[in-house]
Amino acid sequence: MNVIITILLIILVIFILWQVLIRVLRRFFDFPAPAFIGKFLDSDFRRKMQPPDKIISRSKIKEGMKVLEVGCGSGAFTTFVARAVGDKGEVFALDIQPEMLKQIENKLKQPENKDIKNIHLIEGDALNMPLEDNTFDLVYSITVFQELPDKNKALKEMKRVLKPNGILAITEFLPDPDYPLKSTTVKIGTREGFILDDIGGNFWNYTARFIKPHN
């Protein structure tokens, strides 16, 4: 019993030190999740903690939608969203790191994903997206938004590419060292003119859903 308690305490200490280290580094440097951890980010272990079906439901991703994933990384949730929007829908997966997009390309070549034809990979910056105005029904990001160096500018870009009454869904998860409280995400979103629609999930794992006003 003492051995188990000791192991749990060691894990807890490592987790706390990791959280502190990353948060301190974030005060001085802006950097995305490195590409070499792509396999961990795109893992069944992660998806057990963040079930794709729950994120899709809380985000209100539906069949036929044209959606944009900001910061798709190695595609942990991209293929699930692609199947959720179906053949009549489209997923545009944007990331600033070509190494991450290459991992999605390789993933889509796997036999179990050969049926997916509606994903478009885009190398680009969330602060200056190479996309037209009023294009998407829904924009979402999953444990990425807090990594963006200028969140206000990113939100302006997201609003620009969303159609009127389009949905913005931001998902956060506590083990992520960039995790913000719900109130922080809501404050940032509403400050840029989005209307809060709902917050689904719990303290540890939530999705804040906003609406772009019609005018």
Secondary-structure content class: alpha/beta
Question: What shape does the CA trace take?
Answer: globular
Unreliable stretches covering 5 or more consecutive residues: 11-26
Strand order, main sheet: write it out.
Answer: 3-2-1-4-5-7-6
Count of separate DSSP helical elements: 8
- Which CATH architecture of the largest domain is right? 3-Layer(aba) Sandwich
Radius of gyration: 17 Å
CATH fold title of the largest domain: Rossmann fold
Strand content: 15-25%
Terminal residue distance: 61 Å
CATH class wording of the largest domain = Alpha Beta
CATH superfamily of the largest domain, called what? Vaccinia Virus protein VP39
Tell me the domain tally. 2
Listing every helix as H and every strand as E from the N terminus to the C terminus, the arrangement reads HHHHEHEHEEHEHEE
Provide the residue-averaged pLDDT: 87
Let me know the largest β-sheet. Answer: 7 strands, mixed
GO molecular function, one term: methyltransferase activity
InterPro entries: Methyltranfer_dom, SAM-dependent_MTases_sf
Protein name: Methyltransferase domain-containing protein
Pfam family, one: Methyltransf_31
